[in-house]
Design brief:
By secondary structure, the chain is of the alpha/beta class. It has helices at residues 11-22, 39-48, 62-71, 87-92, 94-113, 149-166, 200-209, 236-251, 272-283, 307-313, 321-336, and strands spanning 2-6, 26-31, 53-56, 75-80, 118-125, 170-177, 179-181, 215-218, 230-231, 233-235, 259-264, 270-271, 289-292, 301-302. The chain has a 7-stranded parallel β-sheet, sandwiched between helices.
Length: 337
């Protein structure tokens, strides 16, 4: 079966391509290379022995999207990762996020809407909950006002999909994930942001390897046990496997509704200082860091209740925080050697 993966050369996308290929799917990757590289294909081939079909395409160009789907009429499903994803950057450049994350989604859905039946997996985020009132966060937690334009694009994206599904043959699963980290255990693919990392773990590993002078910890005055923000850090391979399970659920018509929503996390909250401590343990070295002011758009705490995904999808995160950090460190050491 052919599956399209948009943003398939990105961090989560590339790991999902690996899992799809290992499950026997034929994968077509769409990516505009704005935050990725074609070198990732070599890593995918090294792991799976299979070279995925790749098309460089910017989903913000409607005519290009239409042309792609006119050429690929036998697609069984689509997993949509293509989006800008940094909270801080979205605060500084909101229009980039609205253009990239909303327009691209609309054009893809317009193409899928032409099909009698379409299976769609959406890369959503725990940011849709804003600062949730209760921890751990369940799927029926009320959607708060978004804390950032990035979070808002995920809220709007979910609403668009739900509206379109009501009047089309599209069935969708919205996967709200928490904080993906780590790398493939082979160290053939991993997180490789262009420029200065916007996310915690690549900044930690780049500091550990000496590429950055020190890590900035944004705020130590949060109402948490150690004063730093708390997140649910999930190994990217666990996350990738969940996308395959979700797609198979749709293809096998096991979904109970046209739209289903699942949290993907470990169910455990870890503070920034917890992550630093775990990294120091797996790397055997001290990490230089300094406390700076809070970053606009950041919530205090967010970690998942994963009961629904565990019970209905039959999926559960397997790796620990230390497992994920060890794989990220192995990847960082390999790419800098």
């Amino acid at each position: 079966m052919k599956v399209v993966v948009t943003g398939g050369l990105g961090f989560i996308g590339s790991h999902t391509v690996v899992e799809l290929q290992q499950e026997g799917f034929e994968v077509i990757i769409i990516d505009n290379l704005s935050n990725s590289s074609t070198e990732v294909i070599n890593g995918i081939v090294a792991i799976t022995g299979i070279k995925p079909h790749f098309e460089e395409l910017d989903l913000r160009h409607k005519s290009a999207v239409e042309s792609f789907f006119a050429r690929h009429t036998d697609v069984a499903g689509l997993i949509h990762f293509a989006a800008s994803k940094a909270v801080g950057e979205s605060v500084e450049n909101p229009l980039l996020y609205y253009e990239n994350n909303i327009n691209a989604l609309v054009y893809v859905l317009q193409a899928l809407q032409q099909k009698q039946k379409a299976h769609f997996i959406f890369s959503s985020s725990c940011t849709v909950y804003g600062q949730a009132e209760k921890m751990p966060i369940t799927e029926d937690a009320s959607i708060q006002v978004a804390m950032s334009p990035y979070g808002n694009t995920k809220q709007i994206g979910e609403e668009i999909i739900q509206d379109v599904a009501k009047v089309s043959g599209i069935n969708a699963i919205l996967l709200r994930y928490f904080n993906p980290i780590g790398a493939h255990p082979s160290a053939e693919i991993g997180e490789l942001p262009l420029g200065v990392p916007q996310n915690l773990v690549p900044y930690i590993t780049q500091t550990g390897i000496g590429l950055r002078q020190e890590l900035s910890v944004y705020g130590d005055d949060y109402p948490t046990p150690d004063g730093t923000a708390i997140r649910d850090y999930i190994h990217v391979v666990d996350l990738a496997k969940a996308h395959v399970v979700a797609l198979q659920r749709l293809l096998q018509k096991k979904n109970n509704q046209k739209i289903e929503i699942f949290n993907l996390g470990t169910g455990t909250g870890s503070s920034v200082l917890d992550v630093i401590s775990a990294f120091e343990k797996v790397s055997g070295q001290k990490l230089p860091y300094k406390i700076v002011g809070r970053r606009e758009g950041d919530v205090i705490s967010a970690y998942a209740n994963t009961d629904k995904a565990n019970q209905i999808l039959g999926w559960k995160a397997q790796s620990t925080l230390e497992d994920a950090l060890a794989s990220a460190w192995k990847w960082e050491q390999k790419i800098r050697s």
